[in-house]
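Hi, here's the filled form for the chain we discussed.

Project: internal
Contact: R.S.
Residues: 394
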Amino acid sequence: MNQSIPFLDLATPHQELKEELTEVFTKSLDIGGFVGGPMVEQFEREFAAFCDAERCVGVSNGTDALRFAFIAAGIKPGDTVVTVPNTFIATTEAISQAGARPDFVDIDERTYNMDPEKLREYLETQCCLDDGALKNRKTGLRVAAVVPVHLYGQMADMDPILELAERYKLIVIEDACQAHGAQYFSKKENRWRKAGSMGVAAAFSFYPGKNLGACGEGGAVTTNDVEIDRKIRTLRDHGQSKKYYHDVEGYNGRLDAIQAGILSVKLKRLTRWNEARCEAASRYRQLFGIIDRGVVLPEASANTLPVYHLFVVRVHERDKLMKHLAAATIGTAIHYPIPLHLQQAYRHLGLRNGSYPISEKVALEILSLPMFPSLKPDEQKKVYIEIAAFVAAE
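And the returned structure, exactly as it came back:
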């Protein structure tokens, strides 16, 4: 019988943790606590410690985490926030929802993360100082922040990004929604730093397929800034400083207690799960090392420890390969097929093909292979055999 290999296995970890997860639900029923409360506070403490951050605020999803972080950090309507085109739209949705305008710099072709050199070029050639503020020459809008996205589970090159941000007085918000537990060696500080501990704030998503996923929606912001923490706690709860006293207009962006309890249970296993992902990535590398052409493997920078939220290869004739693997009952996905600057939603920005050539190039070639902690060596061998056969036939 042909063995089916899913792109993602969400069933196995929940089957293994069923008793503990059921206890979370039972506890919530017994105490009648469903929104906020002790389980949320406990998870916030635990996740802050996991990220080597002083504070954590649980929110309803990763998009709200980004939006609240922008607002709390001081991004204002009419500001420009710089990020990359090769990311999920939530990154730029949150920028727009905070009243700001997204702008882009291209990615490093090896890591698919923000290229610090491209950021430097953007700041030096497309921006200027005007009345003491850094502004985009074309739009005249203040450039206020930069959002490095730690894509696919690997942290962006943070030292030069933070150096540029300090030089140009930019706010740095990490989009760490795919990087729970990833690490970066800061040469400047001569130590390893966790995702979520390097910007003024960082956003995490706990969508079910993430390395740390809820059984539903969830998100969090980590920060060392007391005031950002306070503002996000107010924003997530209708702008309330206390019940029915609204200091500002806020949002309904709270984390459910049951999801927080589930996340606490899973957080205890996250390091082991991340290690299993790294082992699976190593097995892929050993297998595909035999192929001398046709498959570009993800490159891990020497100063990063990725957690392989996704294992993304690049191939020519990507769509044909995807169909070939589907016929062999192997699940795959594309993260992401259309760079954000070419999406219909951002036509008003006036960008077009050729604006960010690296992002445009890789979008035609990237393919996400099966990756999850319980992925078996024989399953990976089947993936390799099918891809090797396809490449040899091309």
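Let me know if anything looks off before we file it.
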